[in-house]
Amino acid sequence: MSAEIIDGKAFAAKVRGQVAEHVARIKADHGITPGLAVVLVGEDPASQVYVRSKGKQTVEVGMNSYEHKLDADTSESDLLALIEKLNDDPAVHGILVQLPLPDHIDEDLVINSIDPAKDVDGFHISNVGLLGTGQKSMVPCTPLGCLMMLRDHHGSLSGMDAVVIGRSNIVGKPMAQLLLGDSCTVTIAHSRTKDLPDVVRRADIVVAAVGRAQMVPGAWIKPGATVIDVGINRIDKPEGGTRLVGDVDYESCAAVASAITPVPGGVGPMTIACLLANTLTATCRAHGLDEPQGLTA
Ligand SMILES: NC(=O)C1=CN([C@@H]2O[C@H](COP(=O)(O)OP(=O)(O)OC[C@H]3O[C@@H](n4cnc5c(N)ncnc54)[C@H](OP(=O)(O)O)[C@@H]3O)[C@@H](O)[C@H]2O)C=CC1
Ligand SMILES: Nc1nc(=O)c2c([nH]1)NC[C@@H]1CN(c3ccc(C(=O)N[C@@H](CCC(=O)O)C(=O)O)cc3)C=[N+]21
C-alpha cells in the first residue's frame, strides 16, 4: 500500500481563505480589524523565521500584526509589563509569546499572565482546564490543526484507537484531549513507555510529537493506519547542507499507512493557519459576534 499524502500546505491555504473571508466581513459590517501580537524574546534563528512568516500571513488575511522583539536578557518583569499592556490594548485580540523563553524567565508565570480570552496559543491554565472539561476554550494551534486534518480525512473519529507519542503541554497532552473529545480510545506514550513499538502497532491513528528525527519506523505502524507527523527536526544531508524531517521515517511509514502528513508541508502550515483562526475566534468572542464555523474544535 502507498499512503495518501495529507497536504497540510493546501489545507492551510483553504483555512486561511476562510479566515480572510470572515475578517473582510467583520471589517465591513462592524469596522473591527482583528489584531495579533507576537512576542519574541532572544534571537533564536528558527524562531525568527517562524515569527516572520506568522507576521506575513497575519497581514495577508487582513489582520493587524504587532511584533515585539525583545533582547535575550530582557527581565521577567519587563516581559510581564509588556503583556499587561497588550492585555489592556483593545486593538490586540490575540497574544502569542514564542516559546521556549530564556532560562531566567518563568514560562508558566508568563503564560498565565496573558488574558485567557487573548491566549490564542491555548496554553493558559484556564484554557487548559476548559479544554479538559469539554468547555469552550482557546485550543492549542498544533493539535487543532492535526484534528482538522484527521476529521477531514476520516469524517468521524469515534471509536478509533489513537496513540499520541509525546506528552508536552503544547502538543501531546492537548492532542490527546481533542482525540478523546472526538471519542477516540487514546493512549499517550512518552520516554518511559514500555514497548513503544507494540503500543504504536495497536493504533488506527498515530500522532508523533517527540522531537527525534525519523524515530518511528514503518515496522511499528499498523497497516492502513493514519500517521500525523508533528516533528520538525533539521538534519544534515549526506551531500552537505540540511533538511527538515519529522519524527517518523516517512518512506517506510508511507509504505504501510493509508494516509500520512509530510514534513515540511504537513502539520507546520496548519499550525499557523490555526493561529489565525484562533485570533479570529478571539476577536468574535470579544465583540459578541458570530464565531466562524468549522475553525474551532
Ligand atoms: N509542526 C508544528 O507546528 C510544531 C512542531 N513541533 C515539533 O514537535 C516535536 C515535539 O515538540 P514538543 O512537544 O514541544 O517537545 P517536548 O520536548 O516538549 O516533548 C517531547 C515528548 O516526547 C517524549 N519522548 C522523548 N523521547 C522519547 C522516546 N524515545 N520515546 C517516546 N517518547 C519520547 C518526551 O517524553 P518525556 O515526557 O517522558 O520526557 C516528551 O513527552 C518537536 O520536533 C517540535 O519541533 C512543536 C510544536 C509545533
Ligand atoms: N508560543 C508558541 N506557539 C507555537 O505554536 C510555537 C512556539 N511557541 N514555539 C515553536 C513551535 C514550533 N512551531 C512551528 C510552527 C510552524 C512551523 C512550520 O510552518 N513549518 C514549515 C516549515 C518551515 C521551515 O521551512 O522552516 C512546515 O512544516 O512545512 C514549524 C514550527 C510553532 N511553535
TrEMBL record:
Ranges where the Tetrahydrofolate dehydrogenase/cyclohydrolase NAD(P)-binding domain occurs: 140-285
Reactions catalysed, as given in the entry: (6R)-5,10-methenyltetrahydrofolate + H2O = (6R)-10-formyltetrahydrofolate + H(+); (6R)-5,10-methylene-5,6,7,8-tetrahydrofolate + NADP(+) = (6R)-5,10-methenyltetrahydrofolate + NADPH
Pathway membership: One-carbon metabolism; tetrahydrofolate interconversion
Record EC number: 1.5.1.5, 3.5.4.9
Keywords from the named record: Amino-acid biosynthesis, Histidine biosynthesis, Hydrolase, Methionine biosynthesis, Multifunctional enzyme, NADP, One-carbon metabolism, Oxidoreductase, Purine biosynthesis
Molecular function via GO: methenyltetrahydrofolate cyclohydrolase activity; methylenetetrahydrofolate dehydrogenase (NADP+) activity
Pfam family of the protein (one): THF_DHG_CYH_C
GO cellular component, one term: cytosol
Keyword Amino-acid biosynthesis in record: yes
Record-stated family: Belongs to the tetrahydrofolate dehydrogenase/cyclohydrolase family.
Record's subunit section: Homodimer.
Function summary: Catalyzes the oxidation of 5,10-methylenetetrahydrofolate to 5,10-methenyltetrahydrofolate and then the hydrolysis of 5,10-methenyltetrahydrofolate to 10-formyltetrahydrofolate.
Name of the protein in its database record: Bifunctional protein FolD
Record organism: Sedimentitalea arenosa
Gene symbol of the encoding locus: folD
